[in-house]
Amino acid sequence: MKAVYHPAQRAHDPKHFLSSGAPQPNPEQPARVDALLGALERRGIAPAAPADRGLGPIARVHTAEYLRFLQTIHARWRRIEGASEEVIPNIHPDRRSASYPLSAVGQAGYHQADTACPISAETWGSAYWSAQTALGAADLVLGGARAAYALCRPPGHHAFADLAGGFCFLNNTAIAADHCLRGGRRPAILDVDLHHGNGTQGIFYARGDVLTVSIHADPARYYPFFWGHAQERGEGPGLGANLNLPIPRGTADAGFLDALERGLERIAAFGPDVLVLALGLDAFEGDPFGGLAVTTPGFARIAEAIGRLGLPLVIVQEGGYLCAELGANLESFLSGLPAG
Ligand SMILES: [Zn+2]
């Protein structure tokens, strides 16, 4: 197993997070990286730094307007008298067909879905290298590796083409999948994070060339609320190329593995030649979000089931928050993959 990681991903250190209206410390902490690196080290895997593939592969997934916003907004925000240290929106257009504003406050509302994606001076650099890490893992697989792990942080699957949200800025999973497509492959995406991969779904919703499958806690009463329901099947050429498998809060290994089997059947029927796996570890029973109840050995069983597809794997780290078992859960997952 090869792995990719760039230390610049550690610099983004968000402070702000509102949970049911109450200010809390932001759970997407740089220390997550240490737990995940520790897991790789215990498995004898030394991650390599990715090459810099530039903005091109990122701009095929995200709008130019949004990329410029991410790169410039913090400096512009700090020129506003009395503004907060981090960029946090306080106004949103009621419909996104509304006009594009000139002001920093207006653009923050336009490009940030919620208060869980504060932007500091370090955010762009960390998000950029997180995306480059995903591209590096995709290139390893395009070059013939059976599997490659991208230690991406900040995560990406809640980011739409022009919208940050849920700790995510650049959609690393979507960028990796699109890169595989440009490399002549037929990619499918499987998202096993606790939360629905709404940004990934949004990016590919009207496209039939990339299958998107997500298993997650039922959004009827859980983030991201507005997306992730079973009836969302794609549109236009993408109709039928999006499968959501919401499962009840508190579902443990057996229920998760049942949903996974249904997802894997759909993936096999799509006939992909590479799988991009959005690997959230927050479905864990002891994760601070507490939404599902997958056990540490359960992650190995998830990996075994995915491995039976026999597809080359680009594994992109998504969620999974600080708890004593975070590293052990990654170790468990990696131990369940086929050797080699
Ligand atoms: Zn998550």
From TrEMBL:
Protein name in the entry: Histone deacetylase family protein
InterPro entries: HDACs, His_deacetylse_dom, His_deacetylse_dom_sf, Ureohydrolase_dom_sf
Residues covered by the Histone deacetylase domain: 27-336
Alphabetically ordered keywords of this record: Hydrolase, Metal-binding, Zinc
Region (Disordered), start-end ranges: 1-30
Cofactor section: Zn(2+)
Pfam families: Hist_deacetyl (PF00850)
Domain of life of the source: Bacteria
Stated family: Belongs to the histone deacetylase family.
